[in-house]
Specification:
The protein is of the alpha/beta class. The chain has 20 helices and 14 strands. It folds into 3 domains: about 80 residues, no CATH class; about 110 residues, Alpha-Beta Complex (Aspartate Aminotransferase, domain 1); about 250 residues, 3-Layer(aba) Sandwich (Aspartate Aminotransferase, domain 2). Helix 4 crosses helix 6 and helix 8 runs parallel beside helix 15. The chain is globular and about 95 Å long. The mean pLDDT is about 95. The structure holds pyridoxal-5'-phosphate (PLP). The site of pyridoxal-5'-phosphate has 15 residues, from helix 9 and strand 7. Pyridoxal-5'-phosphate (PLP) binds next to helix 9 and strand 7.
């Protein structure tokens, strides 16, 4: 039985039409549609009615038309918020898979905006007029940059590995070192992918040591190919052995077997001078005679999500003809962004133009100076009881590339006697744009290496709000 304040509350609730007459709501109907707004009004009014009937006094006070109008507007706005948002990456992890890996170059972004709203020649031969093959779109560019006979593009590197194995080794054996039977996260495990492709795994060697002879003695009539896998985010140290690429190539060549290399990251420039050692160069593998390589487009290459299969025309063409190719094909936007990214390698401007490479090559001094200036600005705006300190630390490449490489950096450590670090982290995550930071040894840390200079003002505002 409702008491009198509940009765009053229920009587206050306006009709749908009354809300539709409010000026701000009229504007919403004009910008969206009557159906969209009415559905939200009905939902809201039902909720208010149930709330009042349940005796919650909070609802009674919001039942007047003015409050409902504001509430409705907020809800309509939140209904249209995108779920995919730009964020500020304060973690210092350059290829952060959870944060979408590689941010694209200016040229790649321009390509996206010029292509996205138009028809394109995605599968149309402008010379002859008539149909062409999209899987040849970047063939010329990739040939020039990689030095391969041909190359094609699929959805990601996981798909590339799967397609290659399914095409070349289904019903046959693939020789892989036990030291390379890796999992790279996101449930991509070499033995599982191999099994799903229809090939049989022929493991050789041991976890820590595999010799060329181990490969040699496993070769038999059932062998389809030798697979070498970049160990990605894992390193073996100590009593270990992995044959040189040339030794395996020699074996494969003598047995007339193709050798396939899953290179993971797709590193196309020597990053040794910046502390990234041990990252195999794609061009080197191809020049050495590996018949087929595959790698990601959005790791060290610095482009959009894609998998690139490159090598001999004989083998790549077989992959192209696999009917499964259709299930992994990529969209015009990916081709556009990838082509623009590859162009930076052609012109020799990759280190300057591709964000991932620029972040890797940023000098520690530069980050220290930026961090000092930023800390000074921040101190002027944060309340007492809060401090920001500069400490030495390291950024990491991420994305399964060079796990043992640590790029020296400066970190902003946020210290507060009022908020715990995980509370600061959560508040920053709730900002617009969200700021993602690093929690380490019970400290909230920001690495400006992965924050673009043009994001610094947004970061500062976010920090001030979150720490208030
Ligand atoms: C990252 C990686 C893959 C998967 O690549 P995606 O583009 O993420 O699908 C496969 N193999 C290796 C060795 C890798 O490092």
């Amino acid at each position: 039985m409702a008491d009198s304040s509940q009765q009053d509350g229920l009587r206050l609730i306006p009709a749908v039409d009354q809300l539709l007459l409010r000026p701000r709501i009229v504007d919403w109907v004009r910008r969206t549609s009557r159906g969209f707004v009415v559905a939200e009004i009905q939902l809201l009014l039902r909720e208010v009615r149930t709330g009042i009937q349940s005796g919650d006094p909070g609802w009674t006070s919001t039942a007047d038309i003015g409050s409902l109008e504001s509430l409705l507007e907020a809800r309509l706005e939140s209904r249209l918020l995108p779920t995919l948002l730009p964020v500020i990456n304060g973690t210092g992890v350059i290829l952060h898979t959870n944060l979408g890996r590689a941010p694209l170059s200016q040229a790649a972004q321009r390509s996206l905006s010029s292509l996205s709203g138009q028809y394109t020649n995605l599968e149309y031969d402008l010379g002859r007029g008539g149909r062409s093959q999209r899987d040849r779109l970047l063939e010329q560019s990739l040939k020039e940059v990689l030095g391969c006979e041909t190359a094609t593009v699929v959805n990601n590197n996981a798909a590339a590995v799967y397609l290659v194995l399914n095409t070349l080794a289904r019903g046959k054996e693939v020789i892989v070192s036990r030291g390379e039977l890796i999992e790279i996260g996101g449930s991509f495990r070499i033995p599982d992918i191999l099994a799903l492709s229809g090939a049989t795994l022929r493991e050789v060697g041991t976890t820590n040591k595999t010799r060329a002879e181990d490969y040699a003695s496993a070769i038999g009539p059932e062998t389809a190919l030798i697979l070498r896998v970049h160990p990605s985010n894992y390193r073996m140290v100590g009593f270990t052995h992995r044959p040189e690429l040339s030794e395996i190539l020699e074996l494969a060549w003598r047995a007339r077997l193709p050798m396939v290399e899953d290179l993971g990251s797709g590193c196309l420039v020597d990053l040794g001078p910046y502390g990234i050692t041990n990252e195999p160069l794609v061009q080197k593998s191809i020049a050495a005679g590996v018949e087929l390589v595959c790698f990601s487009g959005d790791k060290l290459l610095g482009g959009p999500q894609a998998g690139i299969i490159a090598g001999s025309a004989r083998l790549v063409d077989q992959v192209r003809q696999n009917p499964l190719m259709r299930t992994y094909r990529v969209d015009k936007l990916i081709y556009g962004a990838l082509e623009a990214t590859i162009a930076s390698y052609k012109t020799g401007r990759a280190l300057e133009e591709i964000p991932v490479l620029r972040l890797i090559s940023t000098k520690a001094d530069e980050i220290r100076d930026r961090s000092r200036r930023f800390a000074r600005r921040l101190r002027l705006r944060i309340p007492s009881g809060l401090d920001v300190k500069l400490i030495q630390g390291s950024s990491v490449v991420g994305g399964g590339s060079c796990p043992e490489c640590h790029l020296p950096t400066s970190l902003l450590a946020l210290e507060s006697d009022r908020h715990r670090p995980n509370r600061i982290e959560a508040r920053l995550r709730a900002q617009n744009p969200p700021v993602i930071l690093r929690l380490e040894e019970d400290r909230a840390l920001i690495d400006l290496r992965t924050v673009f200079p043009e994001q610094e003002n947004g970061l500062l505002d976010g920090l001030v709000k979150a720490l208030a």
